[in-house]
């Protein structure tokens, strides 16, 4: 197995751009499917990625998304410029949300975002600075076999 | 022929390579080489979009010829409910049933009752369902194949029920065989279809060995003789008794009818493959987890917009509404009885629907990643105008063909011109 084989690509997500919300997740999902990752890995990556993308659209100004895929792992990084998260531990609790009534009306803000990302990832790391932004990295392990 | 049966054929002698089919194909399954179109069987989902797009009539649906349906001892016509909407001026649906008998069928089997029954069964299933949402309708064979091929992870969400035409055909055959004391093989159920995709689901069901239906003729093929027969029937000749309790209802022929009958408060009806694709992407991203049921139909407007009909979809819709007002009858199914049959598994899918994912770029994941990188590099060097001159529908598809070894970079004439210029 060759872990030096790496596919990487960068994307960008713009805050409050609801009309394009979800396109980066869909694109990343298409790449993973095309390479041929197991469909459960694609599913977990797509769900986690979509939640992270929606967090950016709802709260942040802008984010750079980095996909790094090797035969044994799919790593996705979200680095945003935004308000940051004051209490990360609290934000990781299910049901906790700062969504506005408008966001809830659109079907978001059930407090499922971050916990859902964590649940779908094998490795999960988050660093946030209030007033600056949030850096989120999550990885899903693959067994190197083609799905 | 490959592993999969496809009811769509390109008559090469008629094809003059105008690429309309290649551009419209939603799964990018068509290439035009040396001026002739050909279909990549693995990618084709039998939606039939190419049939209507071809200006030369070179792409045909391989439905059965009308005459071949007459080979059975007992011939049962099973019209898609769309058939009733095709007459201008509107014809009494009972005359249409009688007309089918005049042109040679011994019995007519209506699928609308089965549509109502399966709707109740699905509603019952949803109310006790705790799994991943939303459930997806099993009705449209082109969508089911799209899911198997391009959304394999959603295959498990397809509602595990037989389609109404299969249930109606099975019930009709068993009833007739008992009443007439004849073997099941002597009874032929012929579906009068709106699309080529249903032909595949009859010849090669996605999930089981054999369909209960024995053949399919297109509405377009049957319409000529049927129209003449129906026009000859006078009002006083309509024989309600001979119709064996037939009553008109539109079944699931129009988009939205299925979700209406299923009665779910959180449902989505969507038609046209590009919109269907968007909804399937949303489901994969788990954006629609608050939705219970999705009714995705390949043809615009539902089956009424199929490729093998004779009437414009909007006209046919209007006719259906008029017919429902004039002749339509209320829900007939007995709920308790249907729920009982549902519990006994009467409506359950006879086999299991499995994913049919596309061939990956390479069976080895590391090599597949390398090929994906090569493909992206090639794509970056292409003009990205999707002109189609290379014979592939898009520059993306062309780049993939090169990596898979079925096309050469020199086939891109734009790139060659730029190089020389």
SSE topology:
The complex is a heterodimer of chains A (147) and B (421).
Chain A: E1 7-14, H1 23-35, H2 39-59, E2 62-70, E3 73-81, H3 88-91, H4 101-105, H5 113-120, E4 123-129, E5 133-141
Chain B: E1 8-10, H1 20-24, E2 30-33, E3 36-39, H2 49-53, E4 59-61, E5 74-79, H3 93-102, E6 107-108, H4 112-127, E7 135-136, H5 141-150, H6 164-180, E8 187-193, H7 197-203, E9 215-218, H8 219-232, H9 257-262, E10 267-271, H10 273-284, E11 293-297, H11 313-327, H12 335-343, H13 365-381, H14 395-404, H15 413-420
Parallel strand pairs in B: 5-6, 5-8, 7-11, 8-9, 10-11
Antiparallel strand pairs in B: 1-4, 2-3
Explain how this protein is built:
The complex is a heterodimer of chains A (147) and B (421). In chain A, 35% of the residues lie in helices and 29% in strands. Chain A is built from five helices and five strands. In chain A, strands 1-2-3-5-4 form a five-stranded antiparallel sheet, covered by helices on one side. In chain A, helix 1 (23-35) runs antiparallel to helix 2 (39-59) and helix 2 runs antiparallel to helix 5. By secondary structure, chain B is α/β, with parallel strands linked by helices. Helix content of chain B is 38%, strand content 11%. Chain B contains 15 helices and eleven strands. In chain B, helix 4 crosses helix 6 and helix 13 packs across helix 14 (395-404). Chain B is globular and about 80 Å long.
Short description:
The complex is a heterodimer of chains A (147) and B (421). Chain A has 147 residues and is an alpha+beta fold.
Q: Give the helix tally of chain A.
A: 5
- Give, in spatial order, the strands making up the sheet with the most strands of chain B: 6-5-8-9
State the distance separating the first and last CA atoms of chain B: 43 Å
As a whole number of angstroms, the C-alpha radius of gyration of chain A is 15 Å
Largest sheet of chain A: 5 strands, antiparallel
Shape label of chain A: globular
Helix content of chain B: 25-40%
How many separate domains make up the residues of chain B?
3
How much of the sequence of chain A is in beta strands?
25-35%
Question: According to CATH, what is the class of chain A?
Answer: Alpha Beta
Low-confidence stretches of chain B: none
Structural class by helix and strand composition of chain A: alpha+beta
Poorly predicted ranges of chain A: none
Strand content of chain B is: 5-15%
| Biggest sheet descriptor of chain B | 4 strands, parallel
Query: Tally the helices of chain B: what do you get?
Result: 15
